[in-house]
Amino acid sequence: MPQTLYVATTNPGKLRDFAAAAEAFAVEIAPLPDLKDISPPVEDGLTFEDNARLKAVYYSSFATDCIVIADDSGLEVDALGGEPGVRSARFADDAGFTAPENPTEDTDERNNLYLLERLSSHIVERKTARYRCVIAAARAGKVLLATEGSVEGEILTKPRGTGGFGYDPLFYLAELDKTMAEIDLVKKQTLSHRGKAFFKLLEEMRRNTL
Fold first, then answer.
1. Closest CA to 161 of 144, 176, 143
2. At 34, is the secondary structure helix, strand, or coil?
3. 149 forms bridges with which residues in the sheet?
């Protein structure tokens, strides 16, 4: 019977990414039961690993004897000194940003618009950036493993592609001449920060028979 890992997220994009990567390891992915009814912890860590660990520990207390995984990931843009970093999901909200010419309630779209606005004053030939992710696995309030993955890219001046989520339409991979939002899910698992971190986690779990 396949092992089930419970994921502390309701983000359909993340669940889809995790499920695709887990197939090669005969592992099933499921959202943590009743997650919507659990008050989230305060993500006050200074690093992606800090936040991934605190979330995994916190949510594992709601799933007795089960392994719960949690990730923290985001975008680091060199021209912005590494921002938005751990605040990637809240980048526009933190700044109170709205786009009068393109009002939207979609968080991802507002984050992308704010990123482009912040970068509009930076005159550099290549706006280099990286996606970074740390995934932690915990059981009964104790971290079992934590792994990291990253991918280098550039930020475009306008979005391309309709797949993916977050900053994917702006995150350009020069070697493929495509954004993260333009590549298929299977290819994305071999390239993405989340896919790399998750593969490492699954390999370590297999090696340690967790």
1. 176
2. coil
3. 133
What's the whole-number average pLDDT of the chain? 91
Confidence (pLDDT) at 103: 75
Q: How many CB atoms lie within 10 A of CB 99?
A: 15
Distance CA 18, CA 25 (A): 11
- CA dist 46 → 43, 53, 71 (Å): 9, 12, 14
pLDDT digits (tens, 9 = 90+) for 24-35: 788 889 999 999
| 29, 9 contact by CB (below 8 A) | no
Statement: residue 204 has pLDDT above 80: yes
Backbone φ and ψ of 196, nearest 5°: -65, -45
- The answer to whether residues 129 and 154 touch, using CB atoms and an 8 Å cutoff, is yes
Token pair listed for 137: 């696995």
Of 17, 71, 72, 168, which one is the catalytic site residue? 72
3-207 belongs to which CATH class?
Answer: alpha beta
- Could you report the per-residue pLDDT of 82-107, keeping only the tens digit for each? 999 999 999 999 999 987 777 777 89
Structure token pair of residue 200: 């490492």
72 catalytic residue (yes or no): yes
